[in-house]
């Protein structure tokens, strides 16, 4: 069996891996010290592009255009960059066994990889309807979107089923972004989700009302309060209908499912301490096992701002946690200290000509402000979340870069609020004067 040894191994080839590699290079990693092992066939890329520009009918994004680190305005790390830095990219390689005590990883092909320090950056995998034995969920043209290979299959189906009917199962991030992009591709789109409104983990009813109204104005049909319980196929095995729990049946040429993800931690079960569905880390992303770090979606870490521990599934945290872990590794080697991770939760999305940003925590009372009429030619509105008399979260649709910075600041500073009615009247101006 082939065996390779490295000082540092990053397991996973997503966003976190790319940003960690850049930070290692900045810190002065030596040739042949670092390897990235990824089951994907391409160098790390900015995953958010897949549900947006990759599927556009015109001006679509393609690699090498969105390799990391362009998502944060940095240099694009092409495959040659890794070669120049002496970083080994081990692609199309699935690790099937991890022995943390022996510092050994074994691939599906039987290759053995030894390391001194391991960074777990395995990310998440999509939850599939076949996991729940939904009838007919293995039909062709039922898609999930996580990796570039998934996006390529969807692009082919969009071409093959031109101007057809698309059903989007799920009303979260993927559902809203894919609903928009399928409409842009001139499909007849229906969205189905069980919750009373879209994006319920983040949006308030008032925020959701705008997006549902806007999507309806674009011709997207929304079916709430029910779920897909089965699919029928044609003689070619391609999906033909979506059966809903409430008895309705929807025609479909393409189905895209976005019902959530789960962190990829199975390889490490029983070997490392877990909490809240992820691998427990400290403020430097060190796990309970010496020389093992976990970053991005898989890490449950101390959220200093709120004095609790959380797991965050978002590209911003994937980038920043990876950089923090590398700084901590290098500082530890040099006998220096580094600052604790002090993360302000941040989420964003773009669809059609809309663009929103959210910072902080969405708990407590909400105050909606601005123009959230879906019929407005240029709607601009936001929301604050107030807990224990302080603003803890802020959302803004249609903000300028400076306005988005202002709501980030207000969520970080957490100013006190005495009167919610006055806050509603002041709206965005309250954040801009902090």
UniProtKB/TrEMBL annotation:
Keyword NAD included in the entry's annotation: yes
Cofactor: FAD
Enzyme's top EC category: oxidoreductase
Keyword NADP: yes
GO cellular component terms, A-Z: cytoplasm
Pfam families from the UniProt entry: MDHAR3-like_C (PF21791), Pyr_redox_2 (PF07992)
Name the UniProt record assigns to this protein: monodehydroascorbate reductase (NADH)
């Amino acid at each position: 069996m082939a065996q390779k040894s490295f000082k540092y191994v990053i397991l996973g080839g997503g966003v976190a891996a790319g940003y960690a590699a850049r930070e290692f290079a900045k810190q002065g990693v030596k040739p042949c010290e670092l390897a990235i092992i990824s089951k994907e066939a391409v160098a790390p890329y900015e995953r958010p592009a897949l549900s947006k520009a990759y599927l556009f009918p015109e001006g679509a994004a393609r690699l090498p255009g969105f390799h990391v680190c362009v998502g944060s305005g940095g240099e694009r790390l092409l495959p040659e960059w890794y070669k120049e830095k002496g970083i080994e990219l081990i692609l199309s390689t699935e690790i099937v066994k991890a022995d943390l005590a022996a510092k050994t990883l074994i691939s599906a092909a039987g290759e053995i990889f030894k390391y001194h320090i391991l960074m777990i950056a395995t990310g998440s995998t999509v939850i599939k309807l076949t996991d729940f034995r939904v009838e007919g969920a293995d039909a062709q043209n039922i898609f999930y979107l996580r990796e570039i290979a998934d996006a390529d299959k969807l692009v082919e189906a969009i071409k093959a089923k031109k101007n057809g009917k698309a059903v989007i199962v799920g009303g979260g991030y993927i559902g809203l972004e894919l609903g928009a992009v399928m409409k842009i591709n001139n499909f007849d789109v229906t969205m189905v989700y069980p919750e009373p409104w879209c994006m319920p983990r983040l949006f308030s009813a008032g925020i959701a009302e705008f997006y549902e109204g806007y999507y309806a104005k674009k011709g997207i049909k929304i079916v709430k309060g029910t779920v897909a319980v089965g699919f029928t196929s044609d003689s070619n095995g391609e999906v033909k209908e979506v059966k809903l729990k409430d008895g309705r049946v929807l025609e479909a040429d393409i189905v895209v499912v976005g019902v959530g993800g789960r962190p990829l931690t199975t390889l490490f079960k029983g070997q490392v301490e877990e909490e809240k569905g992820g691998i427990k880390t400290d403020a430097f992303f060190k796990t309970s096992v010496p020389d093992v770090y976990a970053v991005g979606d898989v890490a449950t870490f101390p959220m200093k701002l709120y004095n609790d521990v959380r797991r965050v599934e978002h590209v911003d945290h994937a980038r920043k946690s990876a950089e923090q872990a590398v700084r901590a590794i290098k500082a530890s080697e040099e006998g220096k200290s580094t600052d604790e991770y002090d993360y302000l939760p941040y989420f964003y999305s773009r669809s059609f000509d809309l663009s929103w940003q959210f910072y902080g925590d969405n708990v407590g009372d909400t105050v909606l402000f601005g123009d959230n009429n879906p019929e407005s030619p240029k709607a601009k509105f936001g929301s604050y979340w107030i807990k224990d008399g302080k603003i803890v979260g802020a959302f803004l649709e249609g903000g300028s870069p400076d306005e988005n910075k202002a709501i980030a600041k207000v969520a970080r500073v957490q100013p006190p609020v005495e009167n919610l009615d006055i806050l509603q009247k002041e709206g965005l101006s309250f954040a801009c004067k902090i």
